[in-house]
Amino acid sequence: MTKQNQVAVVGAGVLGLIQALLLQRTGHQVTLFERENERLDHHCSSVAAGMIAPFCELNEAEPEAASWGAQALAVWQSILPTLKAPVHSSFEGTLVIAHHQDRTGLQHLAERVKHLGFEHSMRVLSRQTLRDLEPELEGRFAEGLFFSPEGEVDPRMLLPALVQTLRSEGAILRFQTPVEEIQDGKLRVHAEWQEFEWVLDCRGLAARDIFPHIRGVRGEVMLLRAPDVQLRRPIRMVHPRYPLYIVPRPDHHFFIGATAVESESMRKTTVKSALEMLSAAYSLHPAFAEAEIIETRVHLRPTLPEHLPAIRQQGHTLHLNGLTRHGYLLAPYLAKTATHFVQHQTWPEDAHRLHRPQASA
Predict the structure, then answer these.
(1) Which of 33, 102, 131, 166 is most buried, judging by how many CB atoms fall within 10 Å of its CB?
(2) Residue 35, Cβ neighbours under 10 Å: how many?
(3) How distant, in Å, are the alpha carbons of 13, 86, 212, 300 from that of 360?
(4) H or E element at residue 229
(5) pLDDT tens, N- to C-terminus, the chain (361 residues)
(6) Is-contact 55 116, C-beta < 8 A?
């Protein structure tokens, strides 16, 4: 029998974990199902820069990503202090810079931000003001853009902190428990059906049965240790093919990512991608030449044709998917929207492009 306030969340990536936490904190008894182990190092959520940057990607992103992401940033800022384990995060804005040959990309970004009405979050930097924000870049770049409020969070600290918090707040966590099928308000595990008031499906690429046109977009990232580099905030390099971030982390570590390749190959980082990422880091600061390469990683991001996420309803099941390269930016917005629907059975007014009753075509 379905039990009042009993909800299931399937998938323990960043979206599933945030969804479970919001539901648990609004009075539901949550059972979280995850097919792999508790380390979660298999998830694409663990292979991410953790950028919470609504505005600086508007060269490529849809306008909704900025407006939804601004709401999600506020959710992050409210959630992070309540977690049961410390998580590195910073909200000191994002600096966007470009070499001379890529200046048109910088100008295009500034024009698009203004056209879409987000200029209040952008400041155009001269050589002097850029130096004031990041002294170590003095003399290397003539101009830049500064976006605030924006921030970042360390996925490797965040994911286990969310698991620990869910466990401490009474959620039932069932790791290494594959869900074999999902229907209206119920799911099958170990060949037996379990019923819930609501089921929220956050399986990503594993949900091709619901989103047949979803595809994986390959992303490659690197982690460096550079004791001689002192940067205060994430820096986005304007790149001819994709946004490239250099994100400071504790103990002189720097996260570089990520490429965006239309491929579902999970082979290791290619020489081409490694050269592009390392060349970008070196061109930003020559001291990266002596950095240690700690690791390189690859994963696939679930992407829908519209390049926006979607929520599809089937009775008492909500399927959430398609975060593409905006996982950490948009996960709280999707989770907040789905939680609102579970509570009130109505969709927020600004979610009309998010709630798509039919699978993406």
Answers:
(1) 33
(2) 17
(3) 21, 38, 7, 19
(4) none
(5) 356 689 999 999 999 999 999 999 999 999 999 999 999 988 899 999 999 999 998 988 889 999 999 999 999 999 999 999 999 999 999 999 998 888 899 999 999 999 999 999 999 999 999 999 999 998 889 999 999 999 999 999 999 999 999 999 999 999 999 999 999 999 999 999 999 999 999 999 999 999 999 999 999 999 999 999 999 999 999 877 777 899 999 999 999 987 888 999 999 999 999 999 999 999 999 999 999 999 999 999 999 999 999 999 999 999 999 999 999 999 999 999 999 999 999 998 888 778 876 543 3
(6) no
Distance CA 226, CA 205 (A): 35
Token reading at 338: 């789905």
Give the start-end residues of each E strand in the chain.
6-10, 29-33, 51-52, 89-90, 94-97, 122-125, 144-147, 151-153, 172-174, 181-183, 186-189, 192-195, 198-201, 215-225, 235-237, 244-249, 253-257, 292-303, 310-314, 317-321
With CA atoms as reference, report the closest residue to 146 among 114, 122, 116, 112.
Answer: 122
Domains of the chain, residue spans: 6-49+155-213+305-351, 91-149+215-303
Topology of domain 6-49+155-213+305-351, per CATH?
FAD/NAD(P)-binding domain (3.50.50)
- Amino acid, res. 150: E
For residue 118 the two structure tokens come to: 């987000």
CA distance 59 to 325: 14
Which of the listed CATH numbers 3.40.50.300, 3.40.1690.10, 2.60.40.10, 3.30.9.10 matches domain 91-149+215-303?
A: 3.30.9.10
